[in-house]
Amino acid sequence: MHVSLDGFVAGPNGEIDWARFDDDLVEDVQALVDSADTALFGRVTYQLMESYWPTAADSPTASKHDLDHSRWLNPAPKIVFSRTLKNVHWQNTRIVKDHIGEEIARLRKQPGKNLMLFASPTLGSTFMNLNLIDEYFFNINPIVLGKGKPLFSDQSEMRRLKLLGSKTYKNGVVSLRYRGGS
Amino acid sequence: MRKIVVSEFVSLDGVVEDPGGAEKFKHGGWSFKFRDDQVPKYKMDELKASESLLLGRVTYEEFAKAWPSRKDDVGFADKMNNMHKYVVSTTSKKLDWNNSHLIKTNVVEEVKKLKQQPGQDILVYGSGKLVNMLLKHDLVDELRLMVHPVVLGSGRRLFDDNAETMKVLKLAESKTFPSGIVLLSYHPAK
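ok -> structure tokens follow
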């Protein structure tokens, strides 16, 4: 996910227009997405996605990324973790209200590709506390936002990660890949 | 014209508090969990390229306690002890550490004057409050973050959580160390 230098994943009103993409980065993100076959979301990220992706590929101005990502995301199984969400309007989506750990353990046992958690910082922090994350991908953007929605929250304990790799893009984004740890 | 170089040890969640373990923070000394032989060399080269330190009061007081009694083979401590220290503080009265100078008022003007002198880099370690002030006034020429592969979960963060303005920077360099520390270095965007 995209992160500012001061550790925010969105501005105070959910702004993500500061996140920089270029062709190389989009290609790498798409390859990462292709390594997964199931999408996981928290409610806020899900609702943002649901308002965009079901019809994104229909627009005459759709980019190559819009088309590629739509082809993957729309048919993929999608799970929203939320206690408050009542209805979903996107194909192949279901709501999980509770027992996150058990749900993930069950999904892990099934054959298939990776499970990909998109953005969703609140759920991500919950996942971290439950030791559910195997790998992290952060795209560090060259910007200090000043305020916003933090990447990490409610982390009660110190957690060491292992750096797996880094890559620098021409647009100034540095992508960092870590293995989860404790 | 001298450059102001801000060089920070920072965790993945942006915490800069007490990487060296002198301040009684519950995770104090966290930077020592990540060691390799390239980081000390990098820090030595960085110090060699500098002739002054610019510090806030809190960082200065910790350093002034710790460094005068230190010695090492590569001359890091000698350099720290001998170089000029400019301390930004409205409350400090007496500065005990060798070669220290107090900046009490007109901080922005005084720092600008320092920058205009010829010479090597002016290095800022720690000094979170001062760094935010320098960033706000566009006085930082290079921001170096040594990002450690750890999420601390608590502690003082480098950037003001409620800064009024956003700042776009320009990536100057990134470098990976064997311990998993990543150096991210930035210039002002303009």
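Chain B touches chain A through 38 residues (CB under 8 Å).
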